[in-house]
Specification:
Number of helices: 9
Largest sheet: 6 strands, parallel
Mean pLDDT: 93
Low-confidence stretches: 316-323
CATH topology of the largest domain: L-2-Hydroxyisocaproate Dehydrogenase, Chain A, domain 2
Shape: globular
Helix content: 40-55%
Order of helices and strands: EHEHEEHEHEHEEEEEHHHEEEH
Number of strands: 14
Strand order of the largest sheet: 3-2-1-4-5-6
Number of domains: 2
CATH architecture of the largest domain: Alpha-Beta Complex
CATH class of the largest domain: Alpha Beta
């Protein structure tokens, strides 16, 4: 089936899925957005509610649908799954969400789907790998939201710390979207100025304890938000909107998405969040950015944790699709 570059779908209409749909409405990226949920009435209600805002937003059609309605979508965003509860890590969700992911992928691959899968459900790195393995799609077409949100949190906190617009901060969180993630301080800069040089020019100091404090705030941010309001949704919606824009507009943007690795940093057989070039066809290139010895060690530790989790999953079955 031909792919409609202006058509997308969101599978899962909980807080995260609905927030992403709202962000898509604001951006005006698509002419048709299809919403799916295990609770059909919920999808219908969200479509009706979002459609009420169309006179004040972009011209588009928003409908509740079925899997038959998404075969020609350029982008399918999967948010379906159990939410992280207070006290839970993202990895605690695996048992509940792997079966949900498999059922969704089986439905998608049963259709002649030729678009890109964007996994947002947690644990996103494990589920991105599972979606790729189960679907049999090329790795370029199966990506995850990765640490786009964590990276945004780091930029915002660092911008506040340095008293500079966070959009001028260039820094990455990589590895697991979770407790083993790491900040790449060695490559952080402010509009091309190395972090150390920027601080020197401004007469500011950013000590290692300061960096450790900011990193912990980023790493633990979701726990703090969930403790207060029960769910995180707006930040990730903005991040997914950024990924979608790069795909639809073929921007070739560099974003720390979750990707299936094929030898980068000597790693294979798992997905991790690594800065990558994203364009119309999904993943264009994984960027093996320079890391300090300490950062590379932390990345390998994060990878080991992901591989241990993946080894417990029964993903060795024949893929639903082959090309």
């Amino acid at each position: 089936m031909n792919v409609n570059p202006r058509k997308a779908a969101v599978i899962g209409c909980g807080f995260v899925g609905a927030s992403i749909a709202f962000r898509f409405l604001q951006q005006g990226l698509f002419s048709h957005l299809v919403l799916l949920d295990a609770n059909q009435a919920k999808a219908e209600g969200e479509a009706m509610d979002l459609s009420d805002g169309l006179p004040y937003g972009a011209a588009m059609e928003i409908t509740a649908g079925t899997y038959d309605d998404i075969a020609d979508c350029a982008l399918v965003v999967i948010t379906a799954g159990a939410n992280q509860k207070p006290g839970e890590t993202r990895l605690d969700l695996i048992g509940r969400n792997i079966a949900i992911m498999e059922s969704i992928i089986r439905e998608i691959t049963a259709r002649d789907f030729g678009g890109i899968l964007l996994i947002v459900s947690n644990p996103v790195d494990v589920l991105t790998y599972a979606a790729w393995k189960i679907s049999g799609y090329p790795r370029e077409r199966v990506i995850g939201s990765g640490t786009v949100l964590d990276t945004g949190r780091l930029k915002q906190l660092l911008g506040e710390e340095l008293r500079v617009d966070s959009r001028n901060i260039h820094a990455f969180i990589i590895g697991e979207h979770g407790d083993s993630e790491l900040a790449v301080w060695s490559e952080a800069n402010v509009s091309g100025l190395a972090l150390e040089d920027f601080c020197r020019i401004r007469g500011q100091a950013l000590s290692r304890p300061d960096m450790d404090r900011l990193y912990r705030q980023v790493r633990d941010s979701a726990y703090e938000i969930i403790k207060r309001k029960g769910v995180t949704c707006y930040g990730i919606a903005m991040g997914v909107g950024r990924i979608a824009a790069s795909i639809v507009r073929d921007e070739h943007a560099v974003l720390p998405i979750s990707v299936v690795l094929s030898g980068q940093y000597g790693l294979d057989g798992l997905a991790l969040s690594i800065p990558s070039i994203v364009g119309r066809n999904g993943l264009e290139e994984i960027l093996e950015i320079p890391l300090s010895g300490e950062e590379e060690s932390a990345l390998r530790s994060s990878a080991q944790q992901m591989q241990e989790v993946i080894s417990t999953l029964k993903l060795g079955r024949e893929p639903a699709y082959s090309k």
